[in-house]
């Protein structure tokens, strides 16, 4: 609301009330609703997770917008339009032009295809709690508040409000620890299943369950332990669908005094264990004091033979001890052994987290109401994460809703390149900070996001200027899409290409005309062949430019290819398909970009270097990340040439001052040049020979 609108509203309220007290905004003062839009990924998440859908799929017909599972193994889903229906098989044209056929069960039809429809429904549903004569007034007020995302309710509200479905309006629940009996375990499973089936996430503290191998008097047997029951809860979580690609969300906690804690800490380092839950260790102040003093730490559990054990034990060890009831010490270890195991496992598998039980309760705003025994747990959505499928944005991993294989730094002592991690989950809106290194690498994250440093994991807020942080120190992993030819053509287009109104042009100068232009003509013909509608295919060949030492390869079909990869909108960038593409397509892109715009400089005593200059900092930052996936570290120097007017050719044989943007430079030096020569290399032989020598 503008200052002028606010002033008018206040005057209207004062006139209505007859005094200067505050009042509700009247309907007449609400501005006209504006278009509430989403970017492409946001649209996909909206259609997949939040839009009301035809659950029976009985209304699906040609022309409908649908969400389709394009990869049944990974669960990747895309937006498309139905172009054919036959015997339960649906033919769908995806947004990128690809046509796929899927069984009806693998598509969803959103009944809401515009966010405004969802917001209308939510406003109406929320207003239904009011008295009938007030509902329309509050519907309009709330709908105005939702417009343009001025206020965004929780995801479960967006899904449930205004529907006739029995869904929860709450995102997260912490349910009581299970009673230590078969019935108690199954009762908790039932509660968890019921909540998840209605869209909620669940946190469970497993510390109430007796440890592995403990005696079970009723059946004269031994317990399988708390971790095994955590696996049961995790397994069932993976079975529950919450609409679209969304699955149940589960947090499991085991307190640090529990005899199973070491097994729990290392559980996710074993393939297939607890794959559908996050885990955290409940840490007490006494334990941290023992770690500081390098003292012994008792792993204990109540004496299960105590008369009222079955009726009173609920997982709260402090209450049990305060009542004078007995515990059994199952094992004594060094506190630092547990702490070191937590650190090592977090390095190896990104879990467990730590939940400071007493700190949490002492600092909680609801400390007076009830103790907090568990929690249901940041980087920004645009953060690129090194995965087994290349560099993928965090919000896309969230949209997929699946476990993800992440690249491991070799300093974690693991031989494998990747390890499985839990799905990315959305935590809400928080203050975000940018951590910037002098080499050019950066991350945007919350203050409590942990960063790996030479001294271990450190919260972002605790880092100081001059601190060192770890970056990937090994060759990463790659996707499966894209060829060497595609990478090269897109890389040259970014480096020495031109996007015209309906044509994309690759330019080659000097020796490039003979050595590279014919090769790139072959690449272009291979890539544009599927885009050729005519029966007769016209080959694209280099054309020499009169009175210029230049050859060009231009084509309207090449423009269409460039458009598919987003380069007709912003040319100086690394396309997302390259970041998540195959090793060949990433290598080809870097080869072409560095050959077109890069140089090798022999600095004599100062040392040699490979350099790439650009006025696009975004291009250099993405290129830096791409190089790191090959194990090549680099440094970006900002503003090597300041922005300003410079004399440039005016096209008439003279010079004229033109405004020039600031120029930045990416530099590869020392041992990283050897890796570049082996992994990437220049396409021009004279550059590559100079680098090799």
Number of strands: 32
Number of helices: 23
Q: Could you give a short account of the major beta sheet?
A: 5 strands, antiparallel
Report mean pLDDT, rounded to a whole number: 85
Notes on the structure:
With 693 residues, the chain is of the alpha+beta class. It has 23 helices and 32 strands. The strands form eleven sheets. A five-stranded antiparallel β-sheet has the order 4-3-2-1-5, covered by helices on one side. A five-stranded parallel β-sheet has the order 6-7-10-11-14. Residues 1-28 have low confidence and may be disordered.
Write the layout of secondary structure elements.
Elements: H1 3-17, H2 40-50, E1 65-71, E2 76-86, E3 89-94, E4 99-103, E5 107-108, H3 115-127, H4 135-146, H5 155-160, E6 172-174, H6 182-197, E7 201-205, E8 215-216, E9 221-222, H7 226-239, E10 250-255, H8 261-266, E11 278-283, H9 285-293, E12 296-302, H10 309-312, H11 317-322, E13 327-334, H12 335-349, E14 353-356, H13 357-363, E15 384-387, E16 390-393, H14 394-400, E17 404-407, E18 418-421, E19 433-436, E20 442-445, E21 450-453, E22 456-459, H15 484-496, E23 497-499, E24 504-509, H16 512-515, H17 517-528, E25 543-544, E26 550-555, H18 556-564, H19 576-579, H20 583-597, E27 598-601, E28 609-614, H21 617-628, E29 635-641, E30 644-649, E31 655-660, E32 663-669, H22 671-679, H23 685-692
Parallel strand pairs: 6-7, 7-10, 10-11, 11-14
Antiparallel strand pairs: 1-2, 1-5, 2-3, 3-4, 8-9, 12-13, 15-16, 17-18, 19-20, 21-22, 23-24, 24-26, 25-26, 27-28, 28-32, 29-32, 30-31
Helix pairs in contact: 3-4, 6-7, 15-17, 15-20
């Amino acid at each position: 609301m503008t200052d002028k609108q606010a002033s008018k509203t206040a005057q209207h309220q004062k006139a209505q009330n007859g005094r200067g007290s505050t009042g509700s905004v009247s309907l007449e003062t609400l501005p006209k609703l504006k278009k509430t839009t989403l970017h492409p990924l946001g649209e996909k998440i909206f259609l997949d997770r939040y839009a009301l859908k035809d659950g029976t799929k009985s209304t699906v017909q040609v022309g409908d917008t649908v969400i389709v599972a394009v990869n049944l193994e990974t669960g990747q889903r895309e937006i498309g339009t139905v172009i054919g229906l036959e015997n339960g098989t649906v033919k769908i044209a995806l947004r990128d032009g690809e046509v796929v056929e899927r069984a009806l069960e693998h598509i969803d039809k959103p009944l809401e295809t515009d966010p405004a429809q969802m917001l209308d429904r939510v406003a109406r549903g929320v207003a239904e709690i009011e008295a009938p004569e007030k509902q329309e007034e509050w519907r309009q007020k709330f709908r105005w508040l939702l417009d343009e995302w001025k206020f965004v309710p929780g995801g479960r509200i967006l899904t449930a409000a205004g529907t006739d479905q029995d869904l929860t309006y709450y995102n997260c629940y912490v349910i009581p620890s299970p009673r230590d009996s078969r019935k108690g375990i199954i009762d908790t499973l039932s509660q968890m299943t019921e909540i998840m089936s209605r869209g909620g996430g669940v946190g469970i503290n497993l510390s109430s369950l007796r440890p592995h191998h403990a005696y079970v008097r009723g059946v004269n047997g031994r317990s399988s332990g708390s971790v095994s029951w955590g696996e049961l809860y995790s397994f069932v979580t993976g079975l529950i669908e919450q609409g679209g690609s969304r699955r149940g969300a589960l947090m499991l906690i085991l307190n640090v005094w529990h005899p199973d804690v070491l097994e729990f800490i290392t559980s996710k380092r074993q393939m297939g264990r607890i794959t559908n839950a996050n885990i955290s260790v409940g840490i007490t102040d006494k334990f941290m004091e023992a770690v500081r003093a390098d003292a012994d730490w008792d792993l204990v559990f109540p004496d299960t033979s105590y008369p009222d054990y079955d009726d009173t034990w609920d997982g709260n060890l402090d209450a049990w001890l305060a009542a004078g009831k007995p515990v059994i010490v199952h094992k004594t270890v060094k506190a630092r052994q547990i702490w070191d195991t937590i650190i090592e496992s977090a390095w190896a598998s990104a879990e467990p987290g730590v939940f400071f039980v007493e700190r949490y309760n002492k600092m909680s705003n609801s400390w007076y109401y009830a103790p907090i025994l568990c929690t249901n747990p940041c980087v920004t959505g645009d953060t690129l994460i090194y995965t087994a499928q290349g560099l993928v944005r965090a919000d896309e991993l969230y949209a997929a809703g699946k476990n993800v294989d992440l690249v491991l730094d070799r300093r974690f002592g693991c031989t494998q390149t990747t390890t499985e991690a839990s799905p990315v989950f959305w935590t809400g809106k928080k203050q975000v900070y940018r951590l910037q290194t002098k080499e050019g690498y950066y991350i945007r994250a919350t203050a409590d996001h942990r960063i790996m440093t030479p001294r271990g994991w450190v919260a972002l807020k605790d880092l100081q200027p001059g601190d060192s942080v770890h970056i990937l120190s090994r060759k990463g992993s790659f996707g499966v899409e894209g060829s060497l030819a595609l990478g090269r053509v897109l890389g040259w287009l970014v480096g020495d290409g031109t996007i015209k109104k309906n044509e994309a042009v690759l330019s080659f100068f000097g020796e490039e005309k003979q050595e590279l232009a014919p090769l790139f003509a072959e690449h272009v013909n291979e890539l544009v062949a599927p885009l050729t509608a005519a029966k007769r295919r016209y080959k694209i060949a280099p054309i020499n430019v009169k009175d210029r030492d230049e050859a060009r390869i231009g084509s309207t079909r090449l423009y269409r290819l460039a458009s598919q990869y987003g380069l007709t909108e912003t040319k100086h960038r690394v396309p997302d398909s390259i970041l998540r593409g195959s090793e060949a397509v990433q290598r080809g892109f870097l080869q072409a970009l560095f050959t077109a715009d890069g140089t090798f400089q022999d600095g004599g005593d100062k040392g040699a270097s490979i350099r790439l200059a650009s006025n696009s900092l975004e291009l250099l930052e993405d290129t830096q990340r791409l190089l790191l996936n090959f194990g090549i570290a680099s440094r970006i120097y900002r503003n090597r040439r300041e922005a300003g007017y410079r004399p440039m050719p005016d096209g008439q044989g003279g010079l004229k001052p033109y405004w020039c943007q600031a120029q930045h430079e990416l530099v590869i030096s020392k041992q990283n040049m050897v890796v570049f020569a082996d992994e990437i290399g220049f396409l021009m032989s004279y550059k590559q020979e100079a680098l090799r020598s």
